[in-house]
Amino acid sequence: YGGIMGSFRGMTSGFGGMMSQFSQFMGGHWSNTQNGTADGAFVAIVNYGFYPADLSVVSGTTVTWVNMDFVQHTVTSGTEQAPTNLFDSHELSHMQSFSYTFTAPGTYVYYCDIHPDMTGTIVVT
């Protein structure tokens, strides 16, 4: 178990380091709130997931996704079976970001085109 537990400890300490990098990217501000404002909201792409996976924002909010992983990901509207072509970040490398401004109320689902099991939802009021 030593090798597995050592790897797990390495992963969790790496997550803290990634959150520190994210905080620096954000100008020192990091919040795990579920609500965005018209000023903006942020989603971290980390450990093959979107965090938070479900986000509620008001109309006019710009959401920015930041890829904290060391593998490429996308932020693509819709689902793998039914992409909507509303937005697509194309491939984001480590620490690259993508932003989209949501101007109409509704529920917007999105996924990673490279790893389609990675999904998220933005609810705009």
Q: Over all CA atoms, what is the radius of gyration?
A: 15 Å
Strands ordered across the widest β-sheet:
3-9-8-5-6
Beta-strand residue fraction: 35-45%
Q: Are there runs of 5+ residues with pLDDT below 50, and where?
A: 1-13, 27-38
The tally of beta strands, per DSSP, is: 9
Summarize the structure.
This protein has one helix and nine strands; from the N terminus they run H-E-E-E-E-E-E-E-E-E. It has 125 residues and is of the alpha+beta class.
Could you walk me through the main structural features you see in this protein, from its secondary elements to its overall organization?
This protein is α+β, with helices and mostly antiparallel strands. The longest helix has 24 residues, at 2-25. It contains one helix and nine strands. The strands form two sheets. The chain has a five-stranded mixed beta sheet, with no helix packed on it. A four-stranded mixed beta sheet has the order 2-1-4-7, with helices on one face. Residues 1-13 and 27-38 have low confidence and may be disordered. A hairpin with a 7-residue loop joins strand 8 (106-111) and strand 9. It has one helix at 2-25; strands at residues 41-46, 49-51, 54-57, 61-67, 76-78, 83-88, 97-102, 106-111, 119-124.
